[in-house]
Amino acid sequence: MTLWTNTAEGGTDTVNVTAANSGGASGDAWTNDPIVTGGTVTYSATQKQKGTRSYKIDNTSNANVYLDWRPTPSRQMVCRFYIYLSGTLNTYTTWLMFQPASANAYISLTTNGSRQLRVDSFAATFPNWTGTGNTYSPPLATATWYRIELKVDNSGGTSAGTSTCQIYVGDSGTLFDEASATGQNYGGANFEKFYLGRYGGTTGLGNPVYLDDISLADSSTTMLGPTASSVDPFTWTKTITIGG
Asked: Which of 31, 52, 118, 205 is the most buried (most CB within 10 A)?
């Protein structure tokens, strides 16, 4: 198993993200420069899940604005990321995608204009969420950090893929909602591409979206869980009393 992580901590506020400036203190650099047709991906100190920085995704058109890794090809993948919606969303948007070498197979996570999450696939089959009983999760609140966890297993071949997506508020251990699927067509091959950000839509976002503390592991189906610590190292204090 190979674990990839990126926290945005090595970036400079308001600076555009590139593959070259995305490593260092941030963690594992993005494989390619972000696709930013009609939009921007910048480092931001405005919002953060922890630490001092996050990634700000913004655009005013129906363009792609996303980050990408090319992990070790594997039929099993897990990922975790935190997302913050600063306001309402205008449109259907894909936020995450695992894709084999072929572009005609994938599993993805999308939101609609009501800020509800759906697990999508190449075969256009959508598992129900436990809390709502339908293919869309409860609406995600604005101005709130959510942790999204996804595991996917393509080892059973075409039309035998399985997946589970979980939503939590921040680092809480209490599920906000969960959706699981079996017998899915995710291409039946190794996943080779990971995209995170605004991948497709019909209009501009409406409001910026922030992403933070992103992790990805190949050859695994164990959820990654919350980050090790959500304590801002510059705000905690400790008092030691010596003697009686």
From this structure: 205
The answer as to whether 232 is a domain residue is no
Which tens digits make up the pLDDT trace of 131-173? 999 999 999 999 999 999 999 999 988 888 899 999 999 999 9
CB 21, CB 31: distance < 8 Å: no
Encoded amino acid at 87, one letter: G
pTM: 0.91
What separation, in Å, do the N-terminal and C-terminal C-alpha atoms of the chain show?
A: 51
Give Cα 54 to chain centroid, integer Å. 12
Instruction: Average the pLDDT over each of 58-72, 141-155, 171-185, 224-238 and give the range with the smallest value.
Output: 224-238
Q: How far apart are CA 97 and CA 105, in angstroms?
A: 10
240 in any annotated domain: no
How is the beta sheet containing 117-121 ordered, strand by strand? Answer: 35-36, 65-69, 193-198, 93-99, 107-111, 117-121
Please choose, from the candidates 48, 60, 62, the residue with its C-alpha nearest in 3D space to the C-alpha of residue 11: 48
The alpha-carbon radius of gyration of the chain (Å, integer) is 18
Q: 121: domain range? A: 3-218
Nearest residue to 193 (alpha-carbon basis) of 79, 122, 65, 98: 98
What whole-number distance in Å separates Cα of residue 64 and Cα of residue 167?
24
Phi/psi of residue 128, nearest 5 degrees: -80, 150
Beta-carbon contacts of 128 under 8 Å, excluding residues fewer than 6 positions away, are 134, 135, 179
Q: How many domains does the chain have?
A: 1
